[in-house]
Amino acid sequence: MEFLVASAIGILTAGGIYLMLRLRTFPVILGISLLTYAVNVFLFTSGRLTIAAPPILRDGVTAYADPLPQALVLTAIVISFGMTAVVVMIGLGAFLGSDDDHVDDQPDPETADAEGRS
To answer: What is the reported pTM?
Structure first.
């Protein structure tokens, strides 16, 4: 079980890094999302992989799941959703402003001088 989860985290991380190295906006956003998922799964597994264990201490229960990583993952999911929405809007604004979705575009010096920018 641990090998399967560790492999999934590695695959998500590798895919996220690969997509982040692309030169287009949408793959970069997907890469950031994949890295976020990898971190969430890593945080979730840091609380031990237990099956059918309650997250709350009760009398007579010897094995329980750690509730702190679960709370951290829920918080991280909400924050990552909000940040993904912000990054999508920034990327959409950049695309509509320049008619190009390359991430590393440098401004053309001739066009920038004519428009009064440096």
So the answer is: 0.73
Question: How many other C-beta atoms lie within 10 A of the C-beta of residue 12?
Answer: 20
Contact 66, 22 (CB under 8 A): no
Q: pLDDT (tens digit, 9 = 90+) per residue, 2-43? A: 899 999 999 999 999 999 998 888 898 999 999 999 999 998
CATH number assigned to the domain comprising residue 11? 1.10.287
Q: Which domain holds residue 34?
A: 2-51+64-114
Domain count, the chain: 1
The Cα–Cα gap between 18 and 55 comes to 36
